[in-house]
Amino acid sequence: MNDTTESGAVPLLNRLRRFPDVEAANLQAWDATDSLLLDTAAEFLPGDGNVTVIGDRYGALTLSLAESQATTTGAVRVHQDLVTGEKALRNNADTLGIGGFEQLPLGPSLLAGARLVVMQLPRTLAELEEAADAVARYAEPDVVLLAGGRIKHMSLGMNDVLARCFEDVKPQLARQKSRVLVARTPKLRTRPLPYPIVEENAELGITVCAHGAVFSGTKLDIGTRFLLTFLPKMASAAHAVDLGCGTGILAAMYARSHPDAQVTATDRSAAAVASATCTVQANGLSGRIRVLQDDAMESLPEASAGLILLNPPFHLGASVHAGAGIKLFEAAARVLEPGGELWTVFNSHLPYLPALERLVGRTTVQGRNTKFTVARSISRGRN
Ligand SMILES: C[S@@+](CC[C@H](N)C(=O)[O-])C[C@H]1O[C@@H](n2cnc3c(N)ncnc32)[C@H](O)[C@@H]1O
Asked: Of 15, 145, 242, 337, which has the fewest CB atoms closer than 10 Å, so is most exposed?
């Protein structure tokens, strides 16, 4: 990251870390959008200090605002979807000795009374719609929403989504390939909350629920569909894990086809966990599947699962990075009992087979189609 932004907050930003998220030379804990948002926020800060942050990655926005607000009353409230982002923010706060923030779920407790909302634009329109709807619904009528992003990841659809929730939406001048959209005057909302979306999937015979930020929405991902064709070949485990569960489709389908199994569906995303919880309830599987928000199963004991299902993430935030998958293979190696099975689906061009062999154990290709490979790895145990 270069230091040439105009923000006075750069010294603080440069001390931030992504840990416990994946760290690498080409992955940064803040970007030019954070810096632009902070400079723009300085123009709009309300006198009463009532500021909320949405989508902070590792604390850049929250900690800079908390520090600049240090003499006013009231904590900066923040919602982050990923448990890794929440932990990184707390770690960075401890290192920098900054307090004065509160981490909350998306909803009234986050937004009631808010007069300035500072948001990193999410990747999908659905996630933006859910967040913008919450701001329009719960914040003060004079709230100003500053939504910033990298121009290459922004679309006119984002302006349209904001315009469905706010009377006045204005793009600001761009700086360093980033831009802020300013939205004001919430529209009166009379319709019910659109999220989670609940849909029958006729192909699978289950109901799927999706909050805005969850992978693939209510749709069945094509990689997941391919992995599901191998259900009959999978071991019958007393305890199976759907790792990176998203909406919980894999957990629900495994539980249905293996009536004696207990299943854990786990993801680091709050939206995924809320979606999977809804999917589990909608299919009458509450007694069979527990849903857990966790980073790479870190709260599950070693050697505690007989089978793990995995459609690993391809992206880390906006970057394509193999580290996201590797971290989950390492986690699977820890949590599988010796002889337990890891079933993974991935884009065939990714170099995952040697990594699975090295980290988990004997790995064989079970199937390939034009795009995807499905592999089974047998855990060799860890000694
Ligand atoms: C490709 S999606 C698959 C979702 C779902 N299993 C499906 O097949 O539709 C990958 C999922 O992994 C989750 N994920 C990424 N990194 C994770 C981590 N460190 N710990 C837990 N979940 C993670 C993402 O939030 C995302 O929901």
From this structure: 15
CA distance 375 to 363: 7
Class of domain 197-378: alpha beta
Distance CA 250, CA 229 (A): 11
Distance CA 281, CA 266 (A): 15
Q: Which atom of ligand 1 is nearest to the CA of 21?
A: 19
Q: pTM of this prediction?
A: 0.93
Among residues 144, 154, 98, which one has the least CA distance to residue 118?
A: 144
Residue closest via CA to ligand 1's atom 12 equals 244
CA proximity to 311, closest of 230, 256, 382, 379: 230
CATH fold group of domain 10-186: Rossmann fold (3.40.50)
Strand 178-186 vs strand 144-150: parallel, antiparallel, or unpaired? antiparallel
Beta strands 315-316 and 262-267, pairing class: unpaired
Report the residue among 124, 230, 298, 328 best suited for mutation to probe ligand 1: largest number of ligand atoms under 8 A from its CB. Answer: 328
Complete edge-to-edge strand list for the sheet that includes strand 372-378: 289-293, 262-267, 239-243, 305-310, 336-347, 372-378, 363-368
- Ordered by start, the domain boundaries in the chain are 10-186, 197-378
**C-alpha to C-alpha distance for 294 and 328, rounded to whole angstroms:** 12
> 237: how many CB neighbours lie within 10 A of its CB?
21
- 239: phi > 0 → left, psi -120 to 50 → alpha, else beta; which? beta
Q: What is the mean pLDDT of the chain?
A: 93
- Within 10 angstroms of residue 260's Cβ, the number of other Cβ atoms is 9
**Same fold flag, 10-186 and 197-378:** yes
Ligand 1 centroid–CA 181 distance in Å is 29
